[in-house]
Each structure stands twice: as C-alpha cells, then as structure tokens.
Amino acid sequence: MNTPTTPAPDAAPVRVDSAGAVRTITLNRPAALNSFTGAMHAALLAALNAAADDAQVRCVVVTGAGRGFCAGQDLGDPAMSGDHVDIGAVIERHYRPLALRVRTMPVPVVAAVNGVAAGAGANFALCCDFVVAARSASFIQAFSKIGLVPDCGGTWLLPRLVGRARALGLAMTGEKLAAEEAERIGLIWKCVDDAALHSSVSALAERLAAMPARALAETRRALDAAMPMDFGDALALEAAAQRELGHAHDYAEGVAAFMAKRAPVFVDR
Ligand code: T3D
Fold it and tell me: Ligand 1 centre from 99 Cα, in Å?
C-alpha cells in the first residue's frame, strides 16, 4: 500500500508516493499528457532531489498520470515557448538540470512508461536506468516536426542506445515507435502488457531497492564514462571504482552473506 509523503492536492504537477524503499514520482498534468511546464519542472526536480537526499530511498520510479507518460514541452506555456522565448535558456534552466539529475541519482531510476512519451518526455524516460513500457505506449522524437533538435539528452542517448542509423531515422522523421519495437531495437529495457505494467515495475523496483545502491550508481557512472575511452583507460577506470567499492560496507556484506549462505543487507548509497 502506497503512503503519500507529499500531501499534494490533485492539481499538484507531480505526486510523490513511498512504498518501503521505493519512491514513485508521478507527472500529474493528465489533461495535457503531462507535458512540462515551469511549475512541473520545479516540482519534479525538487522531488528527485528529495529522493536523492533521503537515505531510506533505494529506488525511484517515474511515471505519468492518465493515458500518457509525458508529451515533452508544454507548447502552450507562454513562459517557456513562443516567439520571444530564448529556448536555449529554457533548456539550460530546466532540461539540462533534469537530465543531469536523473543520470547522477545515487539510486536506480525506473521509468514506467504508461502511454505516449514524446519530445523531451521521451528523452526524460530514456535518461532513466530502466525503461519499462506498456504495450500501448509509444516513443516519438517529436522535435523535428516543430523545427528543433532532440534535447533532454536525446542527441547523446539515441545513437548510444540504438546506433546512428536508427537514431537519425527516429530523430529526423519524428515517427511514432511502438513500445514493442522500442524493446526489439534496444531503446528500452522491456515492453509489458498494459495490465502488467504496475506489477512488473513494482517487482523490478523492489528488486533494485534490495541491491547495493552505491555499486549500481557507480556502474552507471562507469559505463557512461567508459564510452569515449580506449580499452586501457576503461580498465583503469574499473580498477579505481573497484578500489573505492572494495572499502565500502556493501562489498564486505555481500561477500559475508555469500559465504554464510544468507541474504545480504545492503546499506551504502
Ligand atoms: O521551449 C521549448 O519549446 C523547448 C523545449 C523543447 C522540448 C520538447 O519537448 S519539444 C517537443 C514538444 N512536444 C511535442 O511536440 C508533442 C506534441 N504532442 C503531440 O504530438 C501529440 O499530442 C501526441 C502524439 C503526444 C499524442 O497525440 P494524441 O492524439 O494521443 O493526443 P492529443 O489529442 O494530441 O493530446 C491530448 C491533449 O494533450 C490535447 O489537449 P486537448 O485538445 O484535449 O485540450 C493536446 O493539446 C494536449 N497536448 C499534447 N501534447 C502537448 C499538449 N499540450 C501542450 N503541449 C504539448 N506538448
């Protein structure tokens, strides 16, 4: 049973719920497919920061209220769109901090994509460590249709996830990609039946929450850092990471639990 940790009215742009060590953040502007306004950005970043700062939280899930996950920028928000708005400043103020926050969380982040994810909404999901999508969900790099380039990390993420040809194809055409196809080409972790989304994500989040969070965050950091490196530098990076983790509680606990044939209790973040 989820326990609300933020007594937010329904109109709040994000809802925050906790169940054990799993913190769920729900984008909550369903009438506009949870598209980003300045207020939603502020609330989302605050919720992510709060989860990062709370030692009890060991996995974060982000999802959308209603039939969509997130349709990207709210194109009707006068504060963030329109003729006289410096879009570069909007990206610097909102999307860059959001993407960096997700990619540096001390715990794993799972996107539960319940419906369409378009524009920055799609790339916000792809910033997460795991994307589990309902079969009826879809991913749209909608930027080209309004004369923009992929943002919220899309230019970096897409070619790394699916290769240059598919990245360019998706970004230039803005075609809708079904969740099943997104899984097939390696854009996302899993596509599941709509009715199974909640239970699949809960099971994954609980499993991740029981794992050594610090090692998982280091794994993300090391994989991302190794991408532009040559093999030798990546080996050195691995040695440095193992050196650090080898002094941490969770390594001792993991080995002790293995030897004693008991379940480990990981606490590091
Ligand atoms: O400042 C900047 O602009 C820079 C930042 C850029 C980052 C970006 O994300 S750029 C990309 C912005 N997003 C889009 O271009 C996507 C626009 N939306 C769509 O193409 C479609 O809505 C979808 C393909 C996502 C879903 O289509 P469908 O047919 O399922 O739903 P719908 O009827 O189009 O939308 C439902 C409602 O949500 C509708 O409102 P209404 O008519 O019922 O009152 C629609 O206007 C609203 N909505 C959907 N997307 C947005 C939106 N309202 C504002 N902004 C949106 N992005």
Answer: 20
Asked if residue 122 lies in contact with residue 157, where contact means CB atoms within 8 angstroms, the answer is no
Q: Which residues pair with 97 in a beta bridge?
A: none
Q: State the average pLDDT for the chain.
A: 95
Closest ligand 1 atom to Cα of 151 = 7
Fold classification of 213-260 (topology level): Lyase 2-enoyl-coa Hydratase; Chain  A, domain 2 (1.10.12)
**pLDDT computed for residue 84 by the predictor:** 76
Cα distance between residue 174 and residue 10, in whole Å:
32
156, 211 contact by CB (below 8 A): no
What is the dihedral sign for C-alpha 131, 188, 37, 33? negative
Q: Indicate the CATH number of 3-209 among 3.40.50.150, 2.60.120.340, 3.90.226.10, 3.30.70.270.
A: 3.90.226.10
Q: Are 161 and 130 in contact (CB under 8 A)?
A: no
CB of 28 closer than 6 A to ligand 1?
A: no
> Cα–Cα distance between 252 and 127 in angstroms, integer?
31
Nearest CA to ligand 1 atom 18: 71
Copy the structure tokens of residue 188: 């996302």
What pLDDT does residue 10 have? 57
**Atom 40 of ligand 1 has which residue's CA nearest to it?**
32
What are the tens digits of pLDDT across the range 27-43? 999 999 999 999 999 99
